[in-house]
Amino acid sequence: MSGSSAATMKLTLRIWRQKDGKAAGKLETYKLDAVSPDMSFLEMLDVLNEQLTKSGGDPVSFDHDCREGICGACSMVINGRPHGPRKATTTCQLHMRSFKDGDTITIEPWRAAPFPVIKDLSVSRSSFDRIIAAGGFVSINTGSTVDGNATPIGKTDADEAMDYAQCIGCGACVAACPNAAAMLFTGAKVAHLVKLPQGQVERSGRVRNMVAQMDLEGFGSCTNHGECSEACPKEIPFDAIVMLNREYMRATVAGKE
Amino acid sequence: MSESSPGRPHSLLGSSIGLKFVMGATGVVLVGFILAHMAGNLQIYLGSDVFNHYAQTLKGTPPLLWTVRIVVLSAVLLHIASAWRLTQKNWAARPQPYASPRRYDRTSYAALFMRGSGLVILAFIIFHLLHFTIGTIQHEHFVLHEVLRGDVWVREENVKILASVPEHMQRHDAYSMFVRGFQNPIIAGSYILANLLLGRHLSHGVASGFATLGYSKGGQRQVAERIGTTIATLVTLGNISFPIAVLAGVVHL
Ligand code: HEM
Ligand code: SF4
Ligand code: FES
């Protein structure tokens, strides 16, 4: 037997509907009758939107792009958890078998002043782009090709840098944080370069400017709840925030360049 | 690119992480004070002479007394000022709450109610100063003194006799003030309650302070959390033991 084996599910959806950034939104209720457990969460929303469009309604706006867990677009809070109930899983990679027949599922956008709602579940995450931009450039030699392994990097440093570099900029950490802080994201961006020789030249300026931009965007600040790394689909460790604190202290209190 | 770009605030105290450092550093000072304060008070179990001698020594060393007072008071004020500023920023960062409750997976009640426990502690600090330092609350116990008769200190409640004894031959009867104070169950209860909340504040605060000050990476996090739990437990048990010991009659006049 191939394809779907389990029976389909009936679901009640409570979805945040908001016309635009200025309108007040509210939760609206929808019913779906035949959801396959093998559908992804976004495919389930596609089915709803098809149904809404056919009946002349307004389809639910939500962000998505890669649908394979690497772009970070599919931001939504599902039953009180960013990206839903499964650990280390983006919404697009979440399957309906994580829910049961008869479930009510509440879906909301990320809630943070620096992530203003565009429509329904879509928010603008440009504030993240501006934090990255504030980090500036990395000085690398662009002359002739460098010999392989000319700059040795220790295995643990390389591994740690790669762990931090996994951040896809989805914003779940901010959505999860009781203070809407962006320190896990900013920490991951700062920390992956700190671990590499290429990141050394601009090291202090980078952390100062990224933190300044993070504040300017209006994110909150960490009180060490640890909800961010728990919600992060890429399992960026809480260590990223400790690294951010250390780097910021090194650049400001210790005044290192 | 070490220059900051124009328009970006980058003063330490203007920044979120800078304010967090202030919280953490003042937290360290306050934890140090609270541990020392509790250790000093444990001398109540050694009897009135040891305890009153300790109180006399503190009062008799104004440079030490005033340095500690000024450092601790500034730490409290800076701690509260940064907590207030950071709280304002955090509230502004989420003007619209979630319509259905966020499900938390990792944090604790202690962490979620830091402001609440902090405010109770502030109220307690004021009450405590009015009680044992300034003597507005239970003034009748605050005025108790001992006088030196030969080479032993004895309690003297007669105000007229006290007035006739020279300064260096009388000392504050802190022991009796302490015991009589806690014989009042409402006073004892409020000390117990405040210190239970102080314990909750410290259990999150100490671990949190370690992370803020850069110590919590990898396995260090567990160490930091253990230190937090240990300090919180010590302070809570030590401090609530005093009113309980008096109410139970273990420590008496
Ligand atoms: C007087 C009223 C007080 C208020 C309003 C207050 C408030 C706060 C707040 C909001 C935090 C940060 C929240 C967090 O990290 O989750 C905090 C952290 C902390 N508090 Fe207090 N607090 C007070 C008194 C005290 C006292 C008396 C002590 C001394 C033992 C103390 C020790 C700490 C420590 C060690 C931290 C951790 C600092 C950090 O996160 O870096 N607090 N307090
Ligand atoms: S740290 Fe994790 S949760 Fe935050 S933006 Fe990066 S991938 Fe998303
Ligand atoms: S759509 Fe790209 S990560 Fe989900």
Structural write-up:
The complex is a heterodimer of chains A (257) and B (253). Chain A has helices at residues 41-54, 126-134, 155-165, 172-176, 183-194, 203-216, 227-231, 239-252, and strands spanning 9-17, 26-35, 77-78, 81-82, 104-108, 117-119, 122-123. Chain A is α+β, with helices and mostly antiparallel strands. Chain A has 2 domains: 3-118, Ubiquitin-like (UB roll) (Roll); 125-252, Fumarate Reductase Iron-sulfur Protein, Chain B, domain 2, CATH 1.10.1060. Chain A has a 5-stranded mixed β-sheet with strand order 2-1-5-3-4. Chain A has a two-stranded antiparallel sheet with strand order 6-7. In chain A, strand 6 and strand 7 (122-123) form a beta hairpin. In chain A, helix 5 (183-194) crosses helix 8. The longest helix of chain A has 14 residues, at 41-54. Chain A is elongated. The model of chain A has no long low-confidence stretch (mean pLDDT 95). Chain B has a single domain (13-88, 108-247), classed as 3 helical TM bundles of succinate and fumarate reductases (Up-down Bundle), CATH 1.20.1300. The longest helix of chain B has 32 residues, at 62-93. In chain B, a hairpin with a 2-residue loop joins strand 1 (145-149) and strand 2 (152-156). With 253 residues, chain B is mainly alpha-helical. Chain B has 10 helices and 3 strands; from the N terminus they run ααααααββαβααα. In chain B, helix 1 runs parallel beside helix 10. A 3-stranded antiparallel β-sheet of chain B has the order 2-1-3. The chains are: A alpha+beta (257), B mainly alpha (253). Chains A and B meet through helix 6, helix 7 and helix 8 of A and helix 1, helix 3 and helix 9 of B.
CA-to-CA gap between the ends of chain B?
69 Å
**Integer tally of domains of chain B:** 1
Going by helix content, strand content and strand pairing, the class of chain A is alpha+beta
Strand content of chain A: 5-15%
Number of strands of chain A: 7
How are the strands of the largest sheet of chain B arranged? 2-1-3
Computed over alpha carbons, the radius of gyration of chain A is 21 Å
* Helix percent band of chain B: 55-70%
- CATH homologous superfamily grouping of the largest domain in chain A: Alpha-helical ferredoxin
Q: What CATH first level of the largest domain in chain A would be assigned?
A: Mainly Alpha
**Please, what is the average pLDDT of chain A?**
95
For the sheet with most strands of chain A, the description reads: 5 strands, mixed
